[in-house]
Every structure is written in C-alpha cells, then in structure tokens.
Design brief:
Elements: H1 25-31, E1 35-36, E2 47-48, H2 50-69, E3 73-74, E4 80-82, H3 83-89, H4 91-94, E5 101-103, E6 109-112, H5 117-124, E7 136-145, E8 161-171, H6 176-193, E9 197-204, H7 217-233, E10 238-242, E11 251-257, E12 263-272, H8 275-278, E13 282-284, E14 290-292, E15 294-303, H9 304-315, E16 328-332, H10 338-350, E17 355-357, H11 364-373, E18 378-382, H12 384-389, E19 391-396, E20 400-406, H13 407-419
Parallel strand pairs: 3-7, 9-10, 16-17, 16-18
Antiparallel strand pairs: 1-2, 4-6, 5-6, 7-8, 8-15, 9-11, 11-12, 12-15, 13-14, 18-19, 19-20
Helix pairs in contact: 1-9
Bound molecules: zinc ion.
Length: about 425
C-alpha cells in the first residue's frame, strides 16, 4: 500500500539545484563507482556495482539493527504473485496502470509486486494468533516494480525497480501508539546520524470529501487523534495536511532538510484499517473472540535508491567512514614498499576495515589525488621509515594530515570510528 517513495508529490526542491553541480548524485555515482545503467537492461533499472552494494548493505544493516532490537523479524517473499492476491487487496483495480503483468505459458495471470503488504498479510494469516503473540512485526528489504512512464526516468530518483526497507506490524488497536513510538525512534536516530533536520507531516483525510476514503468517520477521527497525540508527545516539529492521507488510513510522513536547504520526503509510518478487513486478519482476544487487527506500514529510508541520491547530494559524496566502500587506501611510496603495504592491508582487514592498496605504478602525488577524488576517508602512506618502524603516515579526508602513527593505533582508531558510526 505504501506509495511514498516516488519523488513526485512532496520532494519540494527548494533552495539550490544540485543537478549541474559537484553534488549531482548521478555524477557522484559514477565518480565513486556506485551504480550504472545499461542500455540493454533499460533506463530506470540501475545496476549496483560491488562498491554501491556495500553502501546499500551498510545502510540496510544500520536500520535492521534498530529494528531487530525492537522485536522485528525478517521475512522473505517472491517477487511475483497470482493476480488473485491483488484482486483481494484492491491493487489489481487501483494500481492497474502501474502494474507489470506477466502471463504464464498456460495463460495464468501474474504480476510483479509493486508493494509487499499483500504478500506479508499471507504470512501473518498462516495460523491463528493469540492476543499474547501480538504484535507481529515483519521486515523485509526488497525490490518492488512500478511501471513509470519512461520519459520521467533518470538517475536514482525515478526508477522502475525500487528497493524498500519495508516493514509491516500486525497489532491490536490499543498497541498502535507504542508501535508508532518504536518506529519513530528509529527514524530519529537514523536521520540525526546523517545531520538531517526532520519535519513531520500528519497526512490526514479531507473531511469535505469523505467518499475518497475507506472506513467510518469515527474510525478516522480516532486514528487521526492518536497520531496527533503521538506527535505532540514527541515534541515533533509537525504540521497537519488534510487531503494527504492514504485511501486506507492516515500517515506520518517525515521531511528531511539537507545541507543546501532542500526538503525531501523520506520516511513514512502509515496506519491501515483497510487491508486487515480485506484479508480478514484477526487475533483471538482474551475472551476467546476473533478481534479485527490493524496494520502499520513503515519504511525508514523509504527507497534505498532515492535515499542514496539524497544522501550523496547532502554529503557531496563524502560518505562517513562506516559507510564508505573503501575506508582506507594504502599508498606505498614505491614498488619496494609493496610488501610492507600488503602487511598493512592484512592488519587493517583483520580489524574489519575495508582497505585497499594503491599500487605504485603512478607517481605518489597522482595516486593521492585519485584517492582524494574518490573521497576515501583515510590515506596511509608507507615508505622506508614507516616499514622499519611498523607505522604509517595517516591523512584524514575531513581533518587533514594526522601524522605518523603505530599501525596498531591506526587500526584501533579506525575500528572505533566505524563501530560507533561516527
Ligand atoms: Zn505496506
């Protein structure tokens, strides 16, 4: 059901324009060798290189660690489904234009998933759940596919294959507030870590057009009051936007302001009273009765493609050390220092640091310039003196020359910085 991700409705590009500058994520993506598109595969279908895949995995791991600590479990679903699933969910009709359809040899109709919620309902529905087992919290980082018009495709911001860091909580109405709090904590920690400022939009229904929404007036009033209370209790910088709700329930949408003053719609937490009706999802309550449950949809990054684009432009490509595909570049002064450089490489890798050697086939100056252009967080230059003393001359991208340090010190220093995600 989540339809947040696309740049279209809310990513107001205020302030400076990054499209022709050193901040342009398409340019940075090429310089840092993160992703590529191929004419043969098609536009809007980015391919992630080994380096880009490290960035995706590190981002996902950051979110997953926070989810896991809050009781989420991973699930896995196929990327296609019989059309009956979407007829039940309502997507076959409401999402008709955006669906990629597939017909099997025997004429059965399938579709590529444009979202994960309908599949996830079928995991919840596999067995009856007692109230003691509620909530059930499922998370999955996976691609969804939407048939966007090709004229609009470009870079990572408009794509046909979108990776969502998706989650669905199946819970009782009385548990909604606590679940929103848990998710909101994750959103705050995640965006503050990158230096974004967050503003919150409460996306409510438009009381003048009740026919646009599913559910009763009373249900909507209660749900929206609950979200308003949560926003107040968290002292959030929020505003209300009537008419921005989803068909099935109100949403909390997060807007991040980047380093050049542009605001992007990023994370979302959505309350859904509709899909549980359509799929008849219940738990067995304390009295032994079937009790209708609610769903909470959420994505912290929204889409990894879009978030990566926003992050690259926000940081001008200078990813923090923990997120950098190459965290330390080792530069032997000449060929004869290669052996010691290899020793340094093993030492750093043993400490879990992603390190590479820049072989001495070019001048040292040229190799240093190259490593800096790739925005490598740390450079280690090693020559005669360093090899003799088991040291390296350390230079930081952000702090400049640090000096000659023991190898053990360097490894410990970097390892701590990476572990703390500082
Ligand atoms: Zn969903």
């Amino acid at each position: 059901m989540m339809r947040i991700i696309m740049a279209k409705p809310d990513a107001k590009d205020q302030g400076a324009d990054a499209s022709s500058s050193s901040r342009d994520h398409r340019k940075l993506g090429q310089e840092l060798d993160l992703f590529v598109t191929s004419e043969l595969v098609g536009s809007g279908l980015p391919l992630w290189t080994p380096r880009g895949t490290i960035v995706r995995q590190e981002l996902d791991r950051f979110v997953w660690e926070m989810r896991s600590a809050r009781g989420y479990e991973r699930v896995t679903i196929p990327h296609i489904t019989k059309k009956e699933l979407y007829i039940t969910s309502g997507h076959w009709e409401k999402f008709a234009d955006d669906l990629f359809r597939i017909t099997s040899r025997e004429g059965r109709e399938y579709a590529l998933k444009p979202m994960n919620c309908p599949h996830h309902t079928q995991i919840f529905a596999r067995k009856p759940h007692s109230w003691r087992e509620m909530p059930q919290r499922y998370a999955e980082t996976t691609m969804v596919y939407r048939d966007e018009q090709s004229g609009e495709l470009g870079g990572l911001t408009r794509v046909l294959s979108i990776t969502q860091d998706d989650s669905h909580v199946f819970c009782r109405e009385a548990q909604v507030k606590e679940e929103f709090f848990r998710l909101w904590d994750i959103v705050d920690i995640f965006y503050i870590a990158f230096g974004f400022k967050l503003r919150v939009r409460l996306s409510f229904h438009d009381p003048k057009e009740p026919e646009k929404y599913l559910g009763t007036k009373e249900t909507w009033k209660n749900a929206e009051n609950a979200l308003r209370e949560i926003a107040q209790e968290r002292n959030a910088d929020f505003f209300e936007a009537p008419g921005e709700a989803a068909l099935y329930g109100p949403k909390v949408d997060f807007m991040a302001t980047d380093s050049i003053g542009r605001e992007h719609q990023v994370a979302t937490i959505q309350l859904d009273m509709n899909l549980p009706e359509r799929f008849d999802l219940v738990c067995i309550n304390e009295k032994g009765e079937r009790e209708r449950i609610v769903m909470i949809h959420s994505a912290i990054m929204g889409s990894i493609e879009r978030f990566t684009a926003v992050l690259l432009e926000h940081l001008e490509g200078k990813l923090p050390t923990w997120l950098s595909p190459c965290q330390a570049k080792i530069l032997p002064v000449s060929e004869k220092h290669l052996e010691y450089a290899t020793e340094v490489l093993h030492k750093l890798r043993e400490s879990g640091i992603r390190a590479e050697i820049s072989k001495a086939d070019e001048s040292l100056g040229k190799r240093i310039r190259e490593a800096k252009m790739q925005k490598t967080p740390y450079l280690l230059v090693v020559g005669d003196e360093e090899a003799g003393a088991m040291t390296a001359s350390l230079e930081s991208r952000d702090k400049g020359k640090i000096g000659v340090l023991d190898l053990d010190d360097i490894a410990a220093r970097l390892e701590t910085e990476i572990r703390m995600r500082s």
